[in-house]
Design goal:
5 strands; Nucleotidyltransferase, domain 5; alpha+beta
Length: 151
């Protein structure tokens, strides 16, 4: 995803979701993303949550390079690339990104990248802790994760 600061400088947002729990694991805002920054974020999430068996990614430059491929190989994680022009390959992330765009990005005027990070993180926190999902039995993603851990 991308947006612009008040002075028209662009920035990008890396969104990482757990499609099973519907939890937004990361919404990282930066002026641009390099592959090593994506792998650093994945390493951080692996340390917190453990390794996934697969990751579904689009065909952006930060995902299509050797670095992410090497990270996936070394971590025994399958990379599942979307087919170009087929947003239905991952409708959940598309819906999440649309919601993030309409509820946070379009509703905010970001003064700096730090301001954008702060507001986007607050929105992610609200999404995970205060929004029940019918697909999760009307639990929030955080409640659903908590229920899974107790089981």
């Amino acid at each position: 995803m991308s947006d612009r600061l008040f002075d028209d400088r662009p920035f990008r947002i890396l969104t990482i979701l757990d499609c099973h729990t519907r939890e937004a694991l990361a919404t990282c805002a930066r002026t641009n993303f390099r592959a090593y920054q994506v792998t650093e974020e994945l390493d951080r999430l692996v340390a917190l949550r453990g390794k996934p068996t697969s990751i579904r990614v689009d065909n952006g430059l930060e995902f299509a390079g050797r670095m992410l491929d090497q990270w996936a190989y070394l971590n025994k994680v399958e990379l599942d690339f979307w087919r170009p022009g087929k947003p239905t390959d991952n409708a959940f992330i598309e819906a999440f990104n649309a919601r993030l765009g309409s509820e946070c990005l379009n509703a905010s005027w970001f003064l700096s990248i730090a301001d954008a990070r702060s507001r986007i993180e607050a929105w992610r926190n609200d999404y995970n802790h205060h929004r029940p999902h019918t697909s999760l039995g009307n639990l929030t993603p955080a409640e659903f994760v908590d229920q899974l851990r107790r089981a």
